[in-house]
């Protein structure tokens, strides 16, 4: 089972990877172009404008350094989007070198949507568009040093609105595609780690579970017992009642085993009619007592499936980290003791200390 904590960790990892790529690409490209054009303006007789661009370039590089040091994506998003909003308004009100400032304004909505998403990005872009209308259409403003012809104003207003709508829709469909791909990945991971019939972990699920990793890492000081339980003569159930009834019996056995153990114990279907249970913080003796109690209850129970009252018995082998420190050896030992339980006539449990 992929639990919520695991899912959260994976999603956070994916997001961090995307953020890292996006921040580096944005900042380095931004700093590069701002510096090139800043220097060009500075040496072409527009020193103030050039210095302005160089300062923006430097700020972009510093924001990137700040993000690398703190990994605080929220602060990075806010600083880049606010900085870029100021740059956009600066280009619009100054006209840029040789009146080319407007050309760069078209990149603004795309960057804001990709960093802030449609909701927050939409709010910021709407505010900046409102300020653009003031800059373009309110005459006599001190900070507006460039005046555009009516034709340029109308065409720019129309085309920037078009780019905003396009950027919004593209981000919307990217977010939708991301959501679907996250969902599909989740389903695939579930399928890869879960046993379809019983809903328990399958073999891979157990081996790759975070719980197992955690329990094994604590095992040197915190003994863990491992039990492999096998339904005796399960073939007879299939032969007598049919495979479908066999399936239902396996589901009931899985549910009963799960209900009989603690929340922290880990259970999975190891294959066929074989189940595996991990008991963390449990000695071999305690594991033996636990599994014997469950085994006895199960052997007295009648499993009711399709009108049949079916009785079962179980054989179990147990091993513990007191004797084996690797996963493979733990399993091998539990399997060996399961085999001994079968040899001893079934319906019993065998361990290193109970042969
Ligand atoms: N219905 C059903 N049967 C299964 C499933 N997986 C394995 N089996 C059956 O479980 C039976 C296991 O048979 P055996 O390995 O001979 O073991 P057993 O009959 O339980 O005998 P012992 O283990 O020696 O006590 C086989 O008949 C498999 O077909 C399953 O998912 N559903």
TrEMBL record:
UniProt domain GGDEF: residue ranges: 222-354
Chain coiled-coil ranges: none
Chain segments annotated as transmembrane: 21-43, 49-67, 74-92, 98-116, 123-140, 152-170
Protein name: diguanylate cyclase
Transmembrane as UniProt keyword: yes
Top-level enzyme category: transferase
Top-level taxon of the source organism: Bacteria
EC code: 2.7.7.65
The entry's keywords: Membrane, Transmembrane, Transmembrane helix
Catalysed reactions, as listed in the record: 2 GTP = 3',3'-c-di-GMP + 2 diphosphate
SUPFAM superfamilies reported in the protein's UniProt record: Nucleotide cyclase
